[in-house]
Design goal:
- This protein is an all-alpha fold and 87 residues long.
- The protein has 5 helices and no strands.
- It has one domain: 434 Repressor (Amino-terminal Domain), CATH 1.10.260.
- Helix content is 75%, strand content 0%.
- α1 (3-22) crosses α5 (67-85) and α2 packs across α3 (38-45).
- The longest helix is centred in the N-terminal third of the chain and has 20 residues, at 3-22.
- The protein is globular.
- The mean pLDDT is 94.
Length: 87
């Protein structure tokens, strides 16, 4: 996995965890609502897996936000992380 891909996966996971906790869901609850295993939610949050587009939309629906909002959060967090690394 390339460095950028790994960074994006980690950022996505952090964003997902933050959004999930903001709505007060456990990994198990979110997984159940999306018909996904809790361990898959854990893998997503740790940046070890990435969702399909279908899964992204299911997550967004259960988090009560548009899928585009998740992408926006990921993009902003990634840009901030990249900016922090520049000398």
């Amino acid at each position: 996995m390339e460095g950028r891909d790994k960074e994006l996966h980690g950022v996505f996971g952090s964003v997902l965890r933050e959004l999930r906790t903001q709505v007060g869901l456990t990994q198990e609850q979110l997984g159940f609502e999306c018909d996904l295993d809790r361990t898959f939610i854990s893998l997503l949050e740790r940046g070890l897996r990435q969702p399909t587009l279908t899964t992204l939309f299911a997550l967004a629906e259960k988090l009560k936000i548009p899928a585009s909002t998740i992408i926006q959060h990921v993009e902003e967090a990634y840009q901030a992380k990249v900016a922090d690394k520049k000398p």
